What does this fold into?
Amino acid sequence: MEQLSGADMVVRSLADEGVEYIYGYPGGALLHVYDALFRQEAITHILVRHEQAATHMADGYARATGKPGVALVTSGPGATNTITGIATAYMDSIPMVIISGQVPSAFIGSDMFQEVDMVGISRPIVKHSFLVKRAEDIPEVIKKAFYLAQTGRPGPVVVDIPKDITDISKKYDYQYPETVQLRSYNPPTKGHKGQIRKAVELIQQAKKPVIYAGGGVILGKASEQLTALAQKLNVPVTNTLMGLGGYPGSDKQFVGMLGMHGSYCANQAMHHADLILAIGVRFDDRVTNNTSKFCPEAKIIHIDIDPASISKTVPADVPIVGPVDAVLDTMIRQIEETGTGIGQEALDSWWRQIHEWREERGGLFPYDPGDGKILKPQQVIETLYEVTKGQDTYITSDVGQHQMFAAQYYPFDKPNRWINSGGLGTMGFGLPAAMGVKLSFPDSQVACVTGEGSIQMNIQELSTCLQYDLNIKIINLNNQSLGMIQQWQDMQYRSRYAHSYMESLPDFVKLAESYGHVGMKIADPAMLQSAMEEAFSLKDRLVFMDIQVDPSEHVYPMQIKDGHMADMWLSKTERT
Ligand SMILES: Cc1ncc(C[n+]2csc(CCOP(=O)(O)OP(=O)(O)O)c2C)c(N)n1
It folds into this structure.
């Protein structure tokens, strides 16, 4: 049998697992592993400038490819710098493996230099964690970590490895296991047929059905099944922020995103529905508004891989635990056998109502274009779509108004193309996530929609972009303020802008240039389209577009706190 050191086993196990990229940053506790990385070619290591960015890169890679992302960090501050990234992945159920160095086994608990209890600190935000005790265990632990990260409801897994265990002078038998056994971890492989039958019966009796589909459809690779089912039934579909692209955004059955900043049409449809087919969603508070007023007339079918998600905030009438693709396959087969059953007359009248809601507002997300002298953020996203549509484009975002504008105005027709931190809402996510995507899809367009607040949270990664030729496009919707905070301050604190105005901002053009990239500043609405076309034509350059937008713009609709789904502000002066 092949003999390898602990450090070499770590790297070989990752290669045998099929890992292509590791995003990392070295340190004392990891030097053996870095030496092993130096002596191999199977895996490409990307040297980030901050460990938080390593986790977001791994996360962006995972969201775009569907495969687990891998981050490698040293003990102590290296490990703690990953916490926000791990929590971001945990909240959105993203498969990720984080390998952290640890002080030598004999010194654990002695407050040694750069010692931190990584397993303890990360426990509430991981799917599982391992502290490796013997070098011989490394292959099996890594196999288990990947298995756990990507099966069932995916999530991040930490593998903490003390330095002595990776010692390059000691060798052990190496064999990467083909399978793993984990007692008491048996994620479901199919849904309960009887429950699916009950769901089909409810669908067949419905008069005002809506499909409410979330990130679970994308994670569960079930977009095809969702689209087939929705089109077979001819019912309206809404997506959560995490589910965008799970159903084609430009299809006529799509009524827009729902929830806090969802479309008038989607929120009305949900509120008045008599049946909600909830697929891979978690009835998040940013969707439901006050749960006691949630969809009063609706029966609820809830499909999810994670039994803990079912009836967590809103009780389900028909719960179905199982992988979304398999459950929908069975559901489609049953419907094909029995017919959709939905009465045509009732469905026609429901569609008439849906169209009325749509027309009443003049579209899904109408906005006031103003006098044409100042750029509106909505217009920037519409132009971004005009310039990139038809190409295979991935859009990442940070967190704030720009994120919501991107979600509302960029129709995503395919899954895995819209990449944002929905659950934790992590500013600083967008740039490194875009880098993880661009590495895996170098020929695709990758744009990061951001704000001047968020981009500064991981701006140092512009340096990594130059080193690895990550020629993404940064669309900075610069409103000179923490826009989403100011929106809330306008709406709830009589415009008392407590610490939400950025009195000093860098010259982003010079900043981009100093990192070796192209910077563009755009303030004139007439220049927007041509500037954006130019930026996207520079395929081998990173372009930072600093776009000056109307600082007084708000994101609408906005659900009214404690109301029902369809209680919304529709503009600064109108409410439902
Ligand atoms: C790490 C982090 N800190 C604070 C917040 C709270 N927060 C949410 S949106 C926002 C403002 C974002 O400003 P910017 O990036 O400029 O985007 P804009 O809203 O102006 O489009 C803040 C501070 C957060 N989501 N993440």
Q: What stands out?
A: The CA atoms of residues 402 and 450 lie 6 Å apart. The pocket of thiamine diphosphate is lined by residues 398-402, 425-428, 451-454, 477, 479, 481-485 (CB under 6 Å). The longest strand covers residues 96-102.
